[in-house]
């Protein structure tokens, strides 16, 4: 028992120490702003692509998938405006505007890559063209996933009725459309975390080696969102301080917290790996 406590302390000191010494707070700011700048171009690009392919319900689905996982106090002021932007008719799928949107969205992927390379203590050795193509592929895959989910949610009520008609025992487990939205959003988040930890940073990592950091990230995101939401409700003076900019400032601070937790997840994985390697050397 004492050995486990010592191991946990060493891993945590290593992770937090490296996060602080390697400009983790600055990287969290960079990642938060990059995420905010990439989010809207990504949604515009993905919505335009989905509309071109006939998925007219995509905008509403995308907004729910992105913002339903945010605290309501943060998401509500932004989600309606985002939906208004996304429902503007666009016919410029193959024009420079949407291509630039895809490029700016890929900048968010590059910010994730930089943050994870630092967290995992590795030096990037892949060419810029390879990295940019990989980032664009991530954007396209994300768009395709959102597109598939939007189609699935359109047919979900029909599929649910068919399932209940043939299997009566399944009715209590079907839930509501809101339940399925949360379930799908959680699945997308977990899948995205697995993908970025596995393939964005340089080098190789095993599936099991990235699970502790991902588990920490998910739990800390939930706890951090609840605490920040309660703070906004009860103690915040953002509205009086920033007036019309309050919703943007709240979103930036929230994304900063989310980004710091995300980087700490990578630091935790790296610290665990270093501890295990040190133990293996001592055992040898």
UniProtKB/TrEMBL annotation:
Membrane topology (UniProt): Multi-pass membrane protein
Main subcellular localisation: membrane
Any one cellular-component term (Gene Ontology): plasma membrane
Record has RNA-binding as a keyword: no
Transmembrane domains' residue ranges: 31-53, 93-112, 133-159, 179-200, 207-232, 244-264
Domain of life: Bacteria
Keyword annotations of the record: Cell membrane, Membrane, Transmembrane, Transmembrane helix
Segment forming the signal sequence: none
Protein name as it appears in the record: Membrane protein
Species, as recorded: Aquamicrobium lusatiense
């Amino acid at each position: 028992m004492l050995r486990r406590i010592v191991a946990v302390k060493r891993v945590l000191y290593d992770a937090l120490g490296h996060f602080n010494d390697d400009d983790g707070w600055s990287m969290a700011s960079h990642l938060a702003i990059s995420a905010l700048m990439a989010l809207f171009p990504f949604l515009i690009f993905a919505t335009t692509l989905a509309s071109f392919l006939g998925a007219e319900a995509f905008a509403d689905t995308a907004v729910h998938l992105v913002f339903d996982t945010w605290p309501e106090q943060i998401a509500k002021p932004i989600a309606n405006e985002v939906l208004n932007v996304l429902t503007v008719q666009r016919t410029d799928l193959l024009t420079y505007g949407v291509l630039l949107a895809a490029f700016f969205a890929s900048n968010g992927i590059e910010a994730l890559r930089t943050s994870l390379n630092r967290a995992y203590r590795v030096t990037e050795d892949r060419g810029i063209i390879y990295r940019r193509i990989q980032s664009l592929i991530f954007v396209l895959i994300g768009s395709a996933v959102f597109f598939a989910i939007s189609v699935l949610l359109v047919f979900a009520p029909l599929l649910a009725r068919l399932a209940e008609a043939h299997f009566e025992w399944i009715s209590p487990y079907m839930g509501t459309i809101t339940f399925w939205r949360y379930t799908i959003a959680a699945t997308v988040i977990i899948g995205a975390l697995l993908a970025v930890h596995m393939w964005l940073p340089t080098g190789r990592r095993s599936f099991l080696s990235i699970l502790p950091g991902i588990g920490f990230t998910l739990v800390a995101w939930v706890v951090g969102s609840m605490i920040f939401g309660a703070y906004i409700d009860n103690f915040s003076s953002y509205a009086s301080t920033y007036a019309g900019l309050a919703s943007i400032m709240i979103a930036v601070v929230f994304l900063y917290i989310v980004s710091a937790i995300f980087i700490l997840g990578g630091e935790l994985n790296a610290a665990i790996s270093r501890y295990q390697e040190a133990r293996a050397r001592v055992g040898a």
